[in-house]
């Protein structure tokens, strides 16, 4: 799978522009992907700075249909925006687990670590029917 992205955020005083390309591949129960990104940050009165970023991720179905493990690393090269106070784009590492005890219940846990901050964890759950929408019994069809 190939992905392209173009994004702009902000206004005249501060803005970010991103252009990225990614590639993902699935081989059986394992999926891997990578992304290259060009980020430009502009601040009125200070100018703008452009940096290249690289990200990698992977996912494995430990127990197919039941337990999935995923990992992701953003800005693995620790790109520097400015030498003043060694300002860098955040480097973020994430790992997550998703467990389906039944077809209607999903339990999830993600842990995130910005290399300059303490780790955080986020649990989550979902209940309900997964699959084609609308379900076969929905009316009108």
Describe the structure.
By secondary structure, this protein is an all-beta fold. It has one domain: Porin. It contains no helices and ten strands. A hairpin with a 3-residue loop joins strand 4 (47-63) and strand 5. It is elongated and about 55 Å long. The relative contact order is 0.12. This is TonB-dependent receptor-like beta-barrel domain-containing protein.
Provide the fold topology.
Elements: E1 2-10, E2 14-27, E3 30-43, E4 47-63, E5 67-74, E6 80-82, E7 87-88, E8 92-102, E9 105-114, E10 120-127
Antiparallel strand pairs: 1-2, 2-3, 3-4, 4-5, 5-8, 6-7, 8-9, 9-10
What would you say about this model in short?
0% of the residues lie in helices and 68% in strands. With 141 residues, it is mainly beta.
Number of strands: 10
Decide which structural class fits the backbone: mainly beta
- Count of runs of 4 or more consecutive helical residues: 0
Quickly name the level 1 CATH class. Answer: Mainly Beta
What is the second-level CATH architecture? Answer: Beta Barrel
Total count of domains: 1
What value does the Rg take, in angstroms?
20 Å
The helix/strand series, from N terminus to C terminus, equals EEEEEEEEEE
CATH topological fold name: Porin
Characteristics:
single chain; 141 residues; mainly beta; Porin; eight-stranded antiparallel sheet; two-stranded antiparallel sheet; 10 strands; 0% helix; 68% strand
């Amino acid at each position: 799978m190939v992905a392209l992205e173009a994004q702009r955020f902000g206004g005249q005083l501060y803005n970010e522009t991103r252009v990225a390309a990614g590639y993902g591949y699935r081989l059986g129960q394992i999926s891997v992907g990578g992304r290259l990104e060009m980020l430009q940050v502009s601040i009125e009165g200070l100018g703008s700075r452009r940096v290249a970023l690289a990200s990698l991720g992977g996912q494995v179905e430990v127990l197919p249909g039941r337990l999935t493990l995923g990992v992701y690393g953003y800005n693995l090269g620790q790109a520097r925006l400015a030498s003043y106070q060694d300002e860098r784009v955040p480097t973020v590492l994430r790992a997550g687990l998703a467990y389906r005890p039944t077809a209607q219940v999903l339990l999830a846990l993600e842990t995130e670590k910005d290399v300059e901050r303490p780790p955080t964890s986020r649990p989550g759950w979902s209940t309900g029917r997964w699959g084609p929408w609308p379900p076969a019994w929905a009316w009108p069809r």
